[in-house]
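Bump. Still looking for Quaternary ammonium compound-resistance protein SugE structure tokens.
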Amino acid sequence: MTWFYLLLAGLLEVVWSSTMKLSEGFTRLSYSLETIVAMIFSFVFLSLALRHLPLSIAYPLWTGIGAVGAILVGVIFFKDQLSPMTWFFVALLIIGIIGIKMTSSH
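Sorry for the wait, here they are.
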């Protein structure tokens, strides 16, 4: 269940970063509220994961899931353009996330 909490926390980080973009600087109330709620739940699930995972594992995975997810949302939904070199570094992020998980004893 711990890894599920961490994954959910990371996915909620993607949600709040996306809704923050849609809030247009917190000027659109509904997206602003969605951002705040997603932030709260992201932190709640991260804190649940931290009960059983060390900070040195949980935090980088949480931010990594959020970073890669935000990149994908930006490209797919917001039509962000990334250079091939940027995609290379995104791949390195993914490799790093997988490597941290695979080498963790938890």
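The chain has one domain: 2-103.

Edit: fixed formatting.
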